Amino acid sequence: MANIMAQFQWLTCPRKDLSTGWLYCDPGSLYMPETYVLPESLPQWFPWKEMSIYPVQWHALALGLFASIIAPFGGFFASGFKRAFNIKDFGDSIPGHGGMTDRMDCQMVMAVFAYIYHQSFVVQQSLSIEMILDQILMNLSFEEQRSLYTRLGQYLLERQFGES
């Protein structure tokens, strides 16, 4: 499914405004197929020697595995939480069923995992000069900053005169 969806710009191009015009963008690296050569140890009757897979498919696999193996235990976690605090149920929106939040335990665990996974593995980490400078000013002593300044100056001089 992910390989089919990755072919449509409406699903892969980021929307930066609320306009309804056509989307044109270069697909990101997540939506460009990568070819993987299969190991020689596969039997000879296996029809493929290589496979083309979108990186987004690996992410879909990771999320799907978590959703099917780990997330269902969100109900057990919520049950333990309720027992620890002597709470009968979280609500009365569905009589006899412990409330709507009891029905959402799995989704809450999945939402937390999806956010952490997205921030850790999917989003390209970009650093700006301001972010780097803030880190330098907050974490380095004055002597370390001076040493960095000197070494960076030497590096830039070597690079400038090394290329010409």
Question: Which terms summarize this structure?
Answer:
3 domains, two-stranded antiparallel sheet, 164 residues, extended, mainly alpha, 8 helices, single chain
Which helices and strands occur, and which strands form pairs?
Layout: H1 2-5, H2 9-12, E1 34-37, E2 50-53, H3 55-69, H4 74-84, H5 100-103, H6 105-122, H7 129-139, H8 142-163
Organism: Lithospermum erythrorhizon (Purple gromwell)
EC number: 2.7.7.41
Subcellular location: Membrane
Give an account of the 3D structure.
The termini are far apart. This protein folds into three domains: 1-60, no CATH class; 70-124, no CATH class; 132-163. It is mostly helical and 164 residues long. It is built from eight helices and two strands. The chain crosses the membrane at residues 56-78. Belongs to the CDS family. Keywords: Lipid biosynthesis, Lipid metabolism, Membrane, Nucleotidyltransferase, Phospholipid biosynthesis, Phospholipid metabolism, Transferase, Transmembrane, Transmembrane helix. Its EC number is 2.7.7.41.
Task: Give a nutshell description of this structure.
The protein is mainly α. It is 54% helix and 5% strand.
Which regions are unreliable across 5 or more consecutive residues at pLDDT < 50? none
Beta strands, count? 2
Measured by DSSP, the beta-strand proportion falls in under 5%
Number of helices: 8
Shape: extended
GO molecular function: phosphatidate cytidylyltransferase activity
Membrane topology: Multi-pass membrane protein
Transmembrane segments: 56-78
Protein name: Phosphatidate cytidylyltransferase
